[in-house]
Design goal:
Two copies of one chain form a homodimer.
Chain A (H helix, E strand, L loop, with lengths): L5 E5 L3 H13 L2 E6 L12 E3 L5 H8 L4 E4 L6 H4 L8 E2 L3 H8 L1 H10 L7 E4 L2 H11 L3 E4 L10 E4 L2 H11 L5 E5 L3 E11 L5 E3 L3 E6 L2 E7 L5 H17 L4 E10 L4 E7 L9 H4 L4 H9 L13 E8 L12 H4 L6 E4 L10 E9 L2 H14 L3
Parallel strand pairs in A: 1-2, 1-4, 2-3, 4-5
Antiparallel strand pairs in A: 6-9, 7-8, 7-9, 10-11, 10-12, 10-14, 12-13, 13-16, 14-15, 16-18, 17-18
Chain lengths: 378, 378
């Protein structure tokens, strides 16, 4: 007898919540595990808070799951793997997560597969970083190998003195990644859903707009020509193949001044740049993630409207619990799809929700999403 | 300080599940209460099984809710009303539910407000039913006042002998509703979302196709001209006004051979004929239900594609738990949105799920939805 599968999700934040929503609709059982009370998962029944580095906790959680997946590359997949029941799949694999977690390893893996990247050096010492500067030229982008996000852990250096300062602030025991700083035209992203057998589907190329090193808006499709778009999708697909990704992976890209596509970095999970797909595409990134890790057929990635724009709702204060100021006003904006994650604590710049709007023009979609998002003061 | 509202839902079936999904996305707290283990609600955290006729259970449930709503006109709103905390709204009102639950009262209410209805008589005795037949002519539709659905409790009578048989089988202490049998062109339906202040929005008119007295498919928009469509929406809006409905109500209509619109019946809640709105409209019937009962601004009811078709997935056997036979195959159909409700027991003809597909033509949407739905054997 064929029965409905059960999906375990290591993580209880907004990504786990949005995965769970799609799984529940499809009839799939859902379990969530988080080391602390992550608010978004609280909406669901089988959400557990426990020490997720404990092998017994992990084994119990995985037992009975058809597959276990992660909300983040930092979830304890390595600890789960040795205690995971034989009939429970674990995707993405710990190997994929290992390749992606460390930016030096990630770049080496992609470079070995001939993926186009900004020129980079893995620098173990300050001296090596200065030598890299001589080779790569100024300015440089210095990146911590692990744990950097939203501008934290990255630093632009325009001079040897700035490089020294960055080194002092950021370098870990194994140094830093030193990259050529790309004077890009746009930052782009592509979501790829890939099954265990390697078959994959690509989402439209989107334009990700940053403000203060954080994603402010995502515009789908990106305003680029068909050839560049095909190139970006091909690069993204090859990058996901290179890390043997299974599930939904997001590939962040640079469009250079001379029309080349370079890989910035890979996220081995549904990503903020793909939230627009919930209303904007026939199958959302979360549904295709669920399908891929359970080895089910992948759904269509077609846009359902000519344009879709997603705008993030970031925290504007420190505190608890979130106010709902302006939320009612946001619901007044025609066509605005409001998502509030349910985090119990607000922090400045923390992702608290997002708004997506569709439109016949990018301007129409954008003005609706911006109008609604700016009302919400959490 | 404005905080996010909490919605209580009396009922834990698929309608409660789909309401909860929208509320959770919007950041609204959700509680569900059901007298027995209704499977669909099990996905959510705050789902309680208890004797929902117990005033203490109801008071505890409602305390802290911004509003309580019902999944069905048979939920214990009458019992909740006297123990409901003052700052908790209860929508639809027990009065609205009372007007709708009893088909004789419903018809009288609508007729008093000049809504177009099939000619009918409330017949307390067999003799009165024969007298009604003399006035209305044959054939007749006999309906139980309360509890009839999907063909159960209704009977077509073409002769006095069939009327006698139907009376013997169906009549309750207060008799039966005897209606002129409408030789309709189509059965139509319109969803209306209405706020406590009486402002409302209407969804597109849909064509509901029955097989064996059960809804097989819903086609949006119905293949009717603009004037008939406007008329149907106006009748539906007036019918909902007549019963002072708050929340999402579905109005089932007949399109007669001479192009008139008659009200068949009202459902005071989201309805199977509106499931297509989840993917087919900018704001689903469930989201607008949640918005209306919480007195929030209503969302756009625009279709997001030229056509949408919903096909029901009915149980084909008696048993537990549901098999997932064909479910994987259904996911292979491009553009098919698969919904499985998660009911723990299958029964023949029971609604176990549905599939919606969008398309540039009705044929395209229909073939996708039918193709996926027919794969699933639960």
């Amino acid at each position: 007898m064929t029965t409905f599968p059960t999906l375990g999700i290591l993580g209880g934040g907004q990504l786990g919540k949005m995965m769970a929503a799609e799984a529940v609709r499809l009839g799939i059982g859902v379990r969530l595990l988080s080391p602390k009370d992550a608010g978004p998962m609280q909406a669901y029944a089988h959400a557990t808070t426990a020490d997720w580095t404990d092998p017994d906790v992990l084994r119990d959680f995985a037992t009975g799951c058809t597959a276990v997946t992660v909300e983040s590359e930092w979830a304890p997949a390595d600890q789960l793997a040795p205690v995971c029941p034989q009939d429970t799949a674990l995707w993405p694999s710990p190997q994929t997560l290992g390749w992606i977690r460390h930016k030096g390893v990630q770049n080496d893996r992609l470079a070995a597969r001939n993926l186009p990247l900004p020129a980079y050096r893995r620098c173990a010492t300050r001296k090596a970083a200065h030598a890299a500067a001589d080779e790569l030229g100024w300015p440089l982008m210095l990146k911590q190998y692990e744990g950097s996000y939203d501008g934290y852990g990255n630093r632009l250096a325009k001079t040897p003195a700035e490089l020294d300062d960055a080194w002092d602030d950021l370098a870990a025991d194994d140094g830093l990644l030193v990259e050529q700083c790309i004077d890009f035209v746009r930052e782009l992203a592509v979501q790829i859903a890939r099954r265990p057998d390697g078959t994959s589907v690509a989402y439209p190329v989107v334009h990700t707009e940053q403000r203060n090193h954080r994603c402010h808006a995502v515009v789908a499709p990106a305003p680029i020509d068909a050839q560049l778009s095909e190139n970006a999708q091909a690069v993204a697909r090859n990058a996901v193949d290179a890390v043997e990704g299974v599930g939904l992976l997001a590939v962040e890209l640079f469009e250079t001044q001379d029309g080349a596509i370079l890989v910035n970095e890979i996220a081995p999970r549904p990503h903020n740049t793909g939230h627009y797909t919930i209303e904007g595409c026939t199958t959302s990134q979360f549904e295709n993630h669920v399908r891929a890790v359970l080895d089910l057929p992948l759904g269509s990635t077609d846009l359902v409207a000519p344009h879709a724009v997603m705008v993030n709702v970031l925290g504007q204060r420190e505190g608890t619990p979130p106010h709902a100021t302006g939320w009612r006003q946001a619901l007044q904006v025609p066509g605005a799809h409001v998502h509030i994650y349910g985090k119990p604590e607000v922090r400045t710049h923390r992702k608290m929700g997002h708004v997506t709007a569709l439109g016949n023009t990018a301007t129409e979609a954008r003005s609706r999403a911006e109008e609604a998002a700016k009302q919400i003061i959490l």
